[in-house]
Specification:
The structure is a single chain. With 53 residues, the protein is mainly alpha-helical. The chain is 83% helix and 0% strand. The chain has one helix and no strands. It starts with a helix and ends in an 8-residue tail after the last helix. This is Hydrophobic protein. Keywords: Membrane, Transmembrane, Transmembrane helix.
Length: 53
């Protein structure tokens, strides 16, 4: 019984980590797209910064 619970716990942990990593990839792609759009609009505008650091 204990090995079955350990395997189920391992599966749940790996599923959770995989889900979190997948969500982080989606967030990273969204940030990249926003950055590229801002860069393109800044270039078309003739210069200047579209963000403040």
């Amino acid at each position: 019984m204990l090995p079955l619970l350990a395997i189920l716990l391992l599966v749940l942990i790996l599923f959770g980590v995989g889900f979190a990593v997948k969500v982080l990839w989606y967030i990273a792609v969204a940030v990249l797209v926003i950055w590229l759009l801002g860069f393109l609009f800044r270039s078309a505008d003739g210069g200047g910064h579209w963000y403040r650091w």
